Amino acid sequence: MLLAIHAYDLEVQRIVGDIKDPLLAEIRLAWWREQLQVLATGGEPPAQPLLQALASGRNTGRGVDLAALAAVEDGVLPLLGDDPLPLLQMARARGGALFAALAAAMGADTPPAGAGTAFALGRLLRGPWGHVGVKLARVDWPEPPPRQPLPGPLAALDVLGRDDVRRARAGKPPRPLASALRQWRMWVANLTG
C-alpha cells in the first residue's frame, strides 16, 4: 500500500508535468479524483494497476482515506494556472494528504498539521516537471514549518525534503538522490523519528 500511495503522488505530478494543455490535465486529475471516491465508497476499481493496488489496501484494516488522498492534487494544480504559486499552501495540501495516507497505511497515528510540507516542497524542487518547471525555477523557496516528531519513515522523508529546501534557499542544487549523505540522513531520521 505504501508504494501505491507514493505511485499515486508521482502520477499526479506526472500528469501536471507532462500534459501541456491545462484543461486536459485538469480533466485527467478529475478522473483520478473520481476513481478515488469510487474506491473510498467500496466500489470496484477499473482495470488500472495503480487503482487496483490502492483498492487492495482497503482490506488491510489500516484506515487509509482514499478520498482524502485526492487532496494531493491541490498541491500541484496551481502549476497549471497563471497566478503566483502559493508554495507553502501547495506543499501543505500535497504533503498533508500524502503523510496522512502513509501514516494510516503504516498503522501509525495521524501526523500533526503541517507534517509533510517539507517533503512536498522537496518534491516540488526536484520534479520532473516538464513544461511547468519554468514556473518553479523562478520562485523564492519558503522555509518549511518547524520539525515535528513523526514515525521513522515519515521523519526520513521530512529530513530529505528539508535538506532540499535548505539547499535551494542557499542557491545550491539538490544533492543527488542516492548520495551517501542523503542515505545517512534518512537512516538517522528513521531511527530517531
Characterise this structure.
The protein is mainly α. Helices cover 59% and strands 0% of the residues. It has nine helices and no strands. The protein has helices at 2-18, 22-40, 49-56, 66-69, 87-106, 117-126, 133-137, 152-169, 180-192. Helix 1 runs antiparallel to helix 3, helix 5 crosses helix 6 (117-126) and helix 6 (117-126) crosses helix 8 (152-169). The protein is globular and about 45 Å long. The two termini are 21 Å apart. The mean pLDDT is 90.
Distance between the termini: 21 Å
How big is the Rg? 16 Å
- What is the helix/strand order? HHHHHHHHH
Task: Specify the helix fraction band.
Answer: 55-70%
In terms of DSSP E residues, the strand content is under 5%
User: What structural class do the secondary elements suggest?
Assistant: mainly alpha
Count of individual helical segments: 9
Structural shape: globular
What is the typical, i.e. mean, pLDDT?
90
In terms of quaternary structure, the protein is single chain
Q: Which stretches are low in confidence, meaning pLDDT under 50 for 5 or more residues running?
A: none
List keywords for this structure.
59% helix, 9 helices, single chain, mainly alpha, 193 residues
Lay out the secondary structure.
Elements: H1 2-18, H2 22-40, H3 49-56, H4 66-69, H5 87-106, H6 117-126, H7 133-137, H8 152-169, H9 180-192
Helix pairs in contact: 1-3, 1-5, 5-6, 6-8, 8-9
